[in-house]
């Protein structure tokens, strides 16, 4: 006799099927740029800036939910909605800045993968960048051949791998509980900590994650009979769970550095921080950390290429193969690696470029999700809208501060 799942169990099963897009978008929050910032914060200031990551994650939950809601309710991505509303000259100009942001994102992620391969196997950086690009091609091929759900599965698996890799060190060297709690109190210690806090908080919400999440939520497979309120409920759960995981990984990296790297030389680079971690906790932890970095680079560069394709499709109404786009966008990163410029410096520059793109993604998102004509009954409530504008204002202001402090030396 066949038994059917009914009642609450059936409801939970259907809800589980709706989860996934936020875990792909969350990769943007644990990319190599975040790794560099978190390790630097812990090595230089100990537990002082834990509160920054907690605040950044809280803001990211709201931003990513609004992006996903736009895709669910309208059936269109943020680039598509903007492409429909902007006149041609403005649409082309908007696309140019979005492409520059996508290129900067790709640069950071390919460099992260190259550094990880160098740490693990001694692979030269240029060859490591090429290998990272080839593997990302294979990941994107999964999306092309097997669909979005399979792609989500691959990326989520990489997210699990990097979580283990970055968090493993805490089991060997647990953080100081009292100092960790003290780090939740908002405070700073001089101009250098202000710059680093602005970098961590202002650059947490990445433009490509905002563009992409609306697309992922739009395309995510769900039963036609599922109501929009139910999908939005699942979306909220998806976003909260994914960003709790990503935020925990970021905090774990800072705590690992705070407990083991203060006072050690050379921790201003990922390579130096890796060497210090391996020296303090042993080669096994060093290998696990490098594996986490590799998973971060491979997953984030695949997601970045996906985001770039969606940006082009929405704004230019040109659909380019993900594999073709991956090959084209890989070239600038490989060329820069061939110049011999410090990879860590290139990561810093890429984060500065990303800062320019934040207002162009944040401000339209907040405005559109309040539009009654566009979202109808699902538009932002007044309280949500006020909070969204506050978050957007804080993020934009911190990115402006980051740019000013960077160029002012």
Automatic annotation (TrEMBL):
Localization, per the record, is: Membrane
Fetch the InterPro entries from UniProt: NRAMP_fam
Transmembrane stretches in the record are 12-30, 45-66, 92-115, 121-142, 154-173, 193-212, 239-261, 273-299, 320-339, 386-407
| Membrane topology label | Multi-pass membrane protein
Where it mainly occurs, coarsely classed, is membrane
- Tell whether Kinase is among the UniProt keywords: no
Q: What's the protein name? A: Nramp family divalent metal transporter
**NCBIfam families listed in its UniProt record:** nramp (TIGR01197), Nramp_1 (NF037982), PRK00701.1 (NF001923)
Q: Which UniProt keywords apply?
A: Membrane, Transmembrane, Transmembrane helix, Transport
Q: Which organism is it from?
A: Promicromonospora aerolata
